[in-house]
Amino acid sequence: MPGIITHIVHFEYKPEVSGTERHLIASKFLALLDTCSLAGKPYILSATGGKNNSPEGASRGLEHSFVLTFATLEDRDYYLDKDPAHQIFKAEVGPKLAGACVMDFEAGVF
Questions:
Q1: How far apart are CA 28 and CA 94, in angstroms?
Q2: pTM
């Protein structure tokens, strides 16, 4: 049986993006849990995120991290490539980012 798909995203903002804008971007990202739908139903299982607070000094400029979970690879792929709410979010946020790091994994698959 396939495991849960975990999608992890880290943002590095351009210097000119204000703290208020960064907070709004984070709020919009987490709102995708409710705004993304497939066949009229929510399909993101969970969404969480926050601002880096690691004392290790290894964040490489990444400030916000987000974690979404999906039941299937197909749901994750729909989110990445087709979901209208996610496509709008990417178009709005992309120009405000200096960089991003994205990693996905299937639980228990190494």
A1: 13
A2: 0.93
Q: Tokens 């996905």, residue?
A: 104
The stretches of the chain forming alpha helices (DSSP H) are 19-35, 73-81, 84-93
How many Cα atoms sit within 13 Å of 50 on the Cβ side?
4
pLDDT tens for 22-73 read 999 999 999 999 999 999 999 999 999 999 999 998 889 899 999 999 999 9
In this structure, what token pair is assigned to residue 27? 């709020």
List the structure tokens of 25: 């971007």
| Helix, coil or strand: residue 89 | helix
